[in-house]
Amino acid sequence: MPRETIAHKKERACEIERRMGEHYGTGQCSLDFRSPYELVCAVLLSAQTTDASVNIVTPELFRRYPTPADLASAHVEDVEKIIHRLGFYHAKAKHLIEMAQGLLTKFGGEVPNDIDKLQELPGVGRKTANCVMADAFHNAQGIAVDTHVFRIVHRLRLAGPSANTPDKTEKQILRLFPEDTWNDVNHHLVQFGRDYCSARAPKCSECFISDLCPWTGRDIAKK
Ligand code: SF4
Q1: What is the distance between the alpha carbons of residues 2 and 17, in angstroms, rounded to a whole number?
Q2: Is the CB of 192 under 6 A from ligand 1?
Q3: Into which CATH architecture does domain 6-27+144-215 fall?
Q4: Any idea which fold 36-110 has?
Q5: What angle do helix axes 147-155 and 166-174 make, rounded to 10 degrees?
Q6: C-alpha of residue 42 to centroid of ligand 1, in Å
Q7: 223 residues of the chain, pLDDT tens digit each
Q8: Cβ of 153 below 6 Å from ligand 1
Q9: Dist CA 159 CA 170 (whole Å)
Q10: Model confidence, pTM
């Protein structure tokens, strides 16, 4: 593919997102939550596991610990028992309690509607903060780059080889997508990664953006 101008890349990105919107409708968070506090917990639990598995454990977690104050004073073994079906549950239980303690000591028990302050909480990085800003506060400040988003935007060459971390990748793609699409872009790409552009077996022949993808038709064995 010849070197692409930023203007052309933006056009391609917008067309990709337009088709995603046509295909999937408005992007939806697949984690169940009723408050910013519950969403922070759910996103922390979702690392290295499926949202469906998280949704199985969170009703009991939120029933036992309905507020940050309840979770902050929880015993780690009790939290572990509730979330033990998830990978890394020892670390996740510890992070949940530390996050709740951070909410109490730093922010009076309220989840801040501020992407920088969110990242002051133990265990909360840029990806989690982006999810909370977009889905709990409807105030998207960026595009959460998880494993699906990272893989797909690199295959699509919307991010270049120098963007070798999620943060660098996010910086590059934020220039391409209009701000009012950021939340949808994240949800659409995650769903698209599950449905079409998986890591091991992308369905390029069925893909509705294959004409916009430089990766199409390459032999996956050579990747
Ligand atoms: S053509 Fe293949 S690699 Fe490109 S976006 Fe579609 S599924 Fe992914």
Answers
A1: 22
A2: no
A3: Orthogonal Bundle (1.10)
A4: Endonuclease III; domain 1 (1.10.340)
A5: 60
A6: 29
A7: 668 899 999 999 999 999 999 999 998 899 999 999 999 999 999 988 999 999 999 999 999 999 999 999 999 999 999 999 998 999 999 999 999 999 999 999 999 999 999 999 999 999 999 999 999 999 999 999 999 999 999 999 999 999 999 999 999 999 999 999 999 999 999 999 999 999 999 999 999 999 999 987 554 434 3
A8: no
A9: 8
A10: 0.87
